[in-house]
Design brief:
Mean pLDDT: 85
Distance between the termini: 19 Å
Low-confidence stretches: none
Structural class: mainly alpha
Largest sheet: none
Strand content: under 5%
Number of helices: 6
Radius of gyration: 20 Å
Shape: globular
Number of strands: 0
Length: 203
């Protein structure tokens, strides 16, 4: 949960560009408020689930409840609706990322190209989804690899690169932060390795 609950990095530029009167101060307010609410909600749900079932908690906590429980059945519907309507946000980031890696210019990203890319990526994702049944493994493995990379490793490397490009213009404070950023990246690499090993142990 700690590795996957806050992965919104890929849409950060889009949210900033779409924010009305998009100043850094207003953006920080939006991010701080959103993450604060997320922390409270995830902590509450995670705590209640674990306090109810303890070590017997399933990767998807709803699986621990009876299928005859009406409230839990409604919760399953709510989760399905949430996934259906939030998936496009994550998918757009993934699709744009692949197009960036393939160095496709923005002006050449026609609707036809975007539709083909969407179909191709969704086909691969759907194929993988039909083969993986254990949600706990998927969440653990994704969190240990992609989650740690997005939270700890990539931001640190990007910060180091940005400071390097600034050259003499970089302040002493920014230069002092570089070692701490690299330590964060190293910490993420270690935690990711441990998490990956534990996730693979579920198979």
């Amino acid at each position: 949960m700690l590795s996957t609950a806050y992965m919104a990095h890929f849409n950060a530029p889009k949210f900033y560009n779409e924010l009305k009167n998009n100043t850094i101060k207003r953006y920080n307010t939006v991010v701080g408020t959103s993450f604060g609410i997320s922390v409270l909600l995830f902590a509450l749900v995670g705590s209640l689930g674990f306090l109810t079932f303890g070590s017997a908690s399933s990767g998807l906590i709803l699986n621990n409840y009876s299928t005859k429980d009406i409230l839990m059945s409604l919760s399953r519907v709510a989760v399905a609706v949430s996934i259906v309507f939030s998936f496009p946000l994550a998918f757009v980031g993934a699709r744009d990322g692949w197009l960036d890696l393939l160095k496709v210019p923005s002006e050449k990203r026609s609707n036809a190209l975007l539709n083909k890319a969407t179909f191709a990526i969704l086909s691969v994702i759907t194929l993988i989804a039909t083969q993986l049944k254990e949600l706990a493994f998927i969440m653990s493995f994704a969190g240990a690899t992609l989650g740690n990379a997005l939270i700890y490793i990539y931001p640190a490397l990007m910060f180091k690169s940005a400071v390097k490009k600034m050259g003499e213009k970089a302040s002493k404070g920014l230069r002092r932060e570089v070692p701490f950023a690299l330590f964060s990246a190293l910490l993420g690499l270690v935690m990711g390795s441990i998490g990956t090993k534990m996730a693979l142990g579920m198979l």
